[in-house]
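One-letter codes give the sequence; each number marks local geometry. A record appears below:


***
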Amino acid sequence: FEVVLNAGDNVLQFDAASLSDSYGISVDKVKLTSAYNSSSLIVNGDFWIDQLVLSGTIVLAANQMGVDGWRAGPSGCTYTRSFNLDTWTITITAGTLRQTLLFKDIRQAYHTVGWDGTAQCRYSTAGFSSYFSGGSFSFSNATTNNVTIEFNTGTLRYVQVQPGLVRTAFAARQ
């Protein structure tokens, strides 16, 4: 007997040694066999959380907060946020949108940035890299600085930064 409980992007899975009761379900001797969560360092990489309730064409001044966890770059940012087939997509039409990861959360030397869409991405530990396109790249943080991930014009969804050199399927940070 195996039960899988899907809660958002988290999965709690366990099996049970016995199942009984003619009036309902009774499980005893439950053993946890696996539990996992996203290892992404990005907050709100699927753009679901928008406590400011922004809508339409959103125009942000330099460093102004947009959807939760995301700020405009130094020249501001203009974007729209659209919902289709259970997915939020950001379309950046001017400027850049960024998120800063704290050094204390970066525990491994190598990390992979992954995203879907046409926007290009770059990162900074002490100065910005060139822009990357194609949906993923890896970087090494050999400093004790925070890391800023920044996207320019184009579409954007499912952003994550995770330890290691391999991009995996998107899983939202909880």
